[in-house]
Structures are given as C-alpha cells and as structure tokens.
Amino acid sequence: MQTPTPQAPIGGTPPLLPPGTTVLERGWLSANNIVCVGDDAAAVVDTGYCVHAGQTVSLVAAALEGRPLALIANTHLHSDHCGGNAALQQAWPEARILVPPGQAEHVRDWNPQALSYTPTGQDCPPFRMGGLLEPGGTVHLGAHEWQIHAAPGHDTHSVVLFEPRHRVLLSADALWQNGFGVVFPELEGEHAFADVAATLDLIAGLAPRTVVPGHGSVFTDVAAALDAARRRLDGFVRAPERHALYAAMVLLKYKLLEWQSVPLARLHAWAGATPYFGLLHAGHFADQPRAAWQEALVHELVRSGAARLDGETLHNA
C-alpha cells in the first residue's frame, strides 16, 4: 500500500495536490482515502471496505498527526467507499458524515437492499449520517473549498469533488486512469450508459489538472484517461453483454479479494444467493444453465490470471 504525500512545487510548477491533502492509495478492495487537513479542521473523503476498517483508522490517524477528524465525506455509498465510516466514527465520535442526497433516507433507515449491499453480496456496518453533499454546492475539506458535482453512471447518486484553484478532481469511480467502474444501474435494467457519457463530458469541462481516482494512482494525463474511458464506454454500448460479463467478473473477483481463498462450493453458494448474479444471468446469459455459467466465470477468472484453482479451492492471484 502506498501513502503518497502532497507534492511540493518544483521549478515553479504548481503542486500536484492542494496543500494539506494526502492520498492514501489502497487498492481495489478498499477505495482510496483522501485526507484533507487545515489549521483547525480535518476531513477524509471515502473510507474503504469494512474488512480494512482497522487499517483505515490507523492510516487516517497517522495522516492527521494528532488533529481531530471533523468530517467524513462519501462520494457514493458503495461498500468499498464507506465501509470504514462506522470505525472512523467510533474513533472520532464528533466526526460528521456527509453523503449524496439520493440515498440519505436509506442511510437513516439503514436499508442494505437499497444501499446495494444485499444485491452485491457485500457488507457495510451501519453509520450515522450528519449531512448531505448537495450537487451544485461546495464542501469545506481541510483548508479548501471543493465544488460538488453530480456524477451519475457508475452509481446513480454519485458525486465528484473539484477544487478549482489547484484544478484537482476527486473522481471516485466515474473516471480511472484506464476506464471507470461497473455501471451498476445497467444491472437493474436502467439505461445508464448515457449518464456515464454525460459525466465524462462534465469532467472534460472542468478541465482538471490532476485526478485522484477512487482506485489506482493519482494521474495528470486526463485527456488520455477520458479517451480510454470513452472507448470503453463505446464498446459497452455496442455490446452490452460485454459489460454484463465484466460486471459479473468484478463482483466475483471482489469477493475473492475479501476472502483470499474459498472452497468452490461456498463460492457458488454465495453467487447463487447474490441477487446481481441472478439479474445478470437472466438478462444476458439465460441460454446457459445458471450453474454452468457460474463455473465458466470461475474458469475465466483463472484463465485471466486473477485467480488460481487448487483442487476444489479458489485462491486470489
């Protein structure tokens, strides 16, 4: 795991990140955490997956250097972005959690079905919401004001955060260096590829100098990333079954990242009980028996090098 610190100006060039900003690059099971500190306030954007919660608390505490954590902001409420909320709130009871408005009611009532945790077969401990990230408004993170922009596509309710002075974008899963996240509304039969395109256009219009993605390293070649994302989107629009297969593989790999190794029988039982697999199979692969389709997913994961099969046990690779 990398914990890069803000870059200082070199030869008159602007810093890569706003002063007081630290990116904790986590990997794929946990989203990146962005720690923002000011003279009298500190905040963190996104908090990783619940199985890493203890590690998240330790990393954030180290970045805060004794400062209290006042604010937690979630770009969206997928489990890999807010799974550390409860642990951070326990460590810093005064910390307020801000979420996008579209799912505020589901957080208040704690509805794991509506929040996607049941459909994905993932976990997220309940937490207390303290306010909203209203698109069109701003949020004070550390020493800087960040614009809040609606960014539907990967998640209907997602936002991205933009700091205009340094032109830094926290893009969540709307834009990675080599693509973007699964378009989850498509799994439920909604037509969301157009939302992805509109969000990419929004990002292009903001013209960020630096992008901090939800997963992967900070990058500055934004034009290349947008080109790659648009090509990927075009491929999904032309062949939606490619996106469906990608989504199924991502869900399977994500659970394997959590478990690290699992008996095949347990894996297939989990997939069989996970609603999104049922939707994907019924919507795109119903010409194959469900069990055979799940077996094919496992073999494709092994073939791609993302997993290793040892007898009846599947290992992460």
TrEMBL record:
Gene3D superfamilies: Ribonuclease Z/Hydroxyacylglutathione hydrolase-like (3.60.15.10). Residues 31-215 form the Metallo-beta-lactamase domain. InterPro entries: Metallo-B-lactamas, NDM-1-like, RibonucZ/Hydroxyglut_hydro. SMART domains: Lactamase_B (SM00849). This is Beta-lactamase domain protein. It comes from Paracidovorax avenae (strain ATCC 19860 / DSM 7227 / CCUG 15838 / JCM 20985 / LMG 2117 / NCPPB 1011) (Acidovorax avenae).
